[in-house]
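Example: Glycosyl transferase family 2.
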Amino acid sequence: MKTKPSFFLKHKVIVVMPAYNAEKTLEKTYNDIPKDVVDEVIVVDDDSRDKTVITAKRLNLKVIVHKKNLGYGGNQKTCYREALNLGAEIIVMIHPDYQYDAKLTGELIKPIKDNRVDIMLGSRIRSRAEALKGGMPLYKYISNRFLTVVENIILGLNLSEYHTGFRAYRRNVLETLPLNAFSDDFVFDQEILISAHAKGFKMGEIAVPVRYFPEASSINFIRSLRYGLQIIYTLVLYLLHNLGLKINIFN
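Written out as structure tokens, the predicted fold is:
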């Protein structure tokens, strides 16, 4: 993807896509990204077993390939490090599984560009009926709702979803947080949000349609259970941090 001259945009916006076996959905996701609001797209491949890398190179995207699988969180660490090195002022993370509507990237980043928030989330939970109609498994919907309620109560926020793979960050958020202290597993997504909240960064959200289908990435029930327990543990660490204990992910 060609980079537009900097005078066309007030902020340099880079989209990062942490990819693993995304050959069937990467191109569709990329095609939906509004090119008039994005400067560059980076794909970080986490040792995929399919043709994800070939597809990304065919699309002329910047591609970074892990020689071994580092995990979902490990993949994102590479994504953000590379985007920061390229001078991004706003970093948008989009799962390349076509589950999220990338056409809404402009709407997602607008509150950040307007200096109203530091982090924006694309929530799939506009309504229960819509989420389930979009294919979200019932057990995922129930666990999503339960964990979101718990997080809202403990963090004192009122977000509709914390578990989205479509989100945007202001540069200084990623520069401030101790990314290397976070997990390389799926709970990375929650550690980064809880740590950001602990440091006083502001979060907002927009609603995005949900799309579940066989090619969309998903974790099984056992991994989902482990993910939920890791979130609860992270929230306990947050409470201990508020009591004055030194916790590495909040330093």
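Residues 2-9 have pLDDT under 50 and may be disordered.
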